Amino acid sequence: MNKINIRKFIDREITPEEALALTKINGLQLIELFAVANEIRKKYCGNKVHTCTISNAKSGRCEEDCKFCAQSVHYNTNVLSYDLKTKEVLSEEYINAEKLGSSKFGIITSGRSIKKGSKDYSDIKKFLEDTKSKGKNIDLCCSLGLLNKDELLELKESGMTRFHCNLQTSVGAYEDIVATTHKIKDRIETIKAAKEVGLEVCSGGIIGMGESWEDRIEMAYTLKELGVDGIPINILNPISGTPHGERKHLSMDEILKTIAIYRIIFKDKVIKIGAGRESILKDFTGMAFLSGANGMLVGGYLTTKGRDSQEDFNLIDSIKKLWE
């Protein structure tokens, strides 16, 4: 293929067709792609590493049949299951995240949704109100499934500043990962409702589930159209017992190429590396931050233990030195 002028995308928007053409880059021009993505990150986002600490606030027994998820009741994964953590436990975790220096603290619950009128909804609302009344120093984010506009507005007024709802993959490929229990339009409607009430939205997906490059580009432009504020890129870490349990890991160049192309598409947004950072990227984590990433989860994930939090912040110091 003819060599692509990648640098032209530093100062102008890239079309879906042009983004798809970048997926065919290989060899030495990959290094140029990573360098341009890093230059865009620096120009539009600066040298801040955005961090988020999450609480797996309610685990397991999820009625949805997402094929990648260890928490689905449809699969035998032996994941730890428990009811919603108490307000006291969540408050302690919030304080620990604050001490660590995280930018955000996220409450993540399993299940289709935490609906208004339930005890779980009331308890989360009370936690948000109490934390807000004390003068929160880090933003409060929630991932509570498929909510409506009234619920999102009420939670915003209680103290939630950002709502998380991943698309996971493209509209076209969604039925390949969630066969029966809900549709991607349910997620899109939740994201639209969150934006309508003035919440920031964090939404991305998982790469490595058998999707095509076309699917990854389609997902990116759907997210762009929805106006999301942060884009987490998770790398599938196959979990035994799920339908994706035997999949092979993506190659490093494919992961880094995805991050770089997303940075070119989302010039001024936070692109956050989530699941798979320690287990799959490993020694290539630094390269992810030289290829356009500028955010990461610290202190562990949902059903997978992360690195020690202090090690994560030591890594952040190293990233900042790489950026200098």
Structure in a nutshell:
The chain is an alpha/beta fold. It is built from eleven helices and nine strands. The protein has a nine-stranded parallel beta sheet with strand order 5-4-3-2-1-9-8-7-6, covered by helices on one side.
- Summed over residues and divided by their number, the pLDDT gives a mean of 90
Major beta sheet summary: 9 strands, parallel
Q: By helix and strand content, what is the structural category?
A: alpha/beta
Instruction: Give the C-level CATH assignment.
Output: Alpha Beta
Number of strands: 9
Helix share, percent: 25-40%
Q: Give the neighbour order of strands across the main sheet.
A: 5-4-3-2-1-9-8-7-6
* Proportion of beta-strand residues: 5-15%
Distance separating the two termini: 34 Å
Unreliable stretches covering 5 or more consecutive residues: none
Shape category: globular
Number of H- or I-type helical stretches: 11
Nearest-angstrom radius of gyration? 19 Å
Name the CATH homologous superfamily: Aldolase class I
SSE pattern:
HHEHEHEHEHEEHEHEHHEH
User: What is the level-2 CATH architecture name?
Assistant: Alpha-Beta Barrel
CATH topology: TIM Barrel
Fold and architecture overview:
- The protein is α/β, with parallel strands linked by helices and 324 residues long.
- The chain has one domain (15-323): TIM Barrel (Alpha-Beta Barrel), CATH 3.20.20.70.
- The chain is built from eleven helices and nine strands.
- The protein has helices at 16-22, 29-45, 87-100, 119-133, 149-158, 184-196, 213-226, 252-265, 277-281, 285-289, 309-323; strands at 50-58, 104-109, 139-143, 162-164, 200-202, 205-207, 230-235, 270-273, 295-297.
- A nine-stranded parallel β-sheet has the order 5-4-3-2-1-9-8-7-6, covered by helices on one side.
- Helix 7 (213-226) links the parallel strand 6 and strand 7 (230-235).
- Helix 4 (119-133) packs parallel to helix 5.
- The two termini are 34 Å apart.
